[in-house]
Amino acid sequence: MKTIVVTGTHAVGKTMLCNHLAKTLSGAIDVKIIPEMARILIAKGISMNDKASELGIVSYISEYLKYTRETKASLIVSDRSVFDLFAYISVSRPDDVREEFLRLTEEIVFQEVRRVDAYVYVPIEFEMQRDDVRPANIEYQRTVDLKVRDLLKFFEATVLTVSGTVEERVASVKRWLNV
Fold first, then answer.
1. Measured distance CA(125)–CA(28) in Å, rounded
2. What is the value of pTM for the model shown?
3. pLDDT at 35
4. 32: helix, coil or strand?
5. C-alpha to C-alpha distance for 101 and 89, rounded to whole angstroms
6. Are 137 and 91 in contact (CB under 8 A)?
7. Fewest beta carbons within 10 Å, which of 77, 87, 102, 178?
8. What share of the chain is helix, strand, coil (3-state, %, to 5)?
9. How many separate domains does the chain show?
């Protein structure tokens, strides 16, 4: 069983890449996607991203750990992870979120990096596609992107950087997987 986490700042095509990977690889191997937790929580009315609360942080961690425990497949493709939560709250932790929540999230990421085979980093290449989930501020997007890159180095994660069209990105991941 392999686990890859598709990571990067918001609005760079991570979810599209996850969906295309699953569709492309499903005939060759058993693939399951762990969906993006922030979208699930926002749909439930829980603030995330630049407005993450302590409840949001704990809810994200709890939901994500539940998905990782319950998801079984030859290849697990995670649309973000606790790593991404840590990147976002490192950039824009609201004043009412205590430092202990940041430290807890960091410790979980240290554990996560040990079990993830690779973080598939999606850089900013195209104009931001706006949605109702992420802040539309381009400077904020760039700041999060820089933080993601810095944290991948800090945690000494195995990283595969993909670029180009979604088809080129899928091809890069397939080469890395030897599929």
1. 29
2. 0.94
3. 97
4. strand
5. 9
6. no
7. 178
8. 55, 10, 35
9. 1
Which residues constitute the domain of residue 54?
A: 2-177
Percent of the chain with pLDDT strictly greater than 90: 83
What's the DSSP call for residue 126?
S
CATH code, 141: 3.40.50.300
DSSP letter for 134, please: S
Look up residue 124 and give its DSSP letter. -
Among residues 170, 81, 141, 163, the alpha carbon closest in space to that of 117 is found at: 81
State both tokens at 38: 């922030």
CB atoms closer than 10 angstroms to residue 21: 25
Strands (E), 17-176: 31-34, 75-79, 118-121, 159-161
- Yes or no: say if 26 and 18 are a contact pair by the CB < 8 Å rule: no
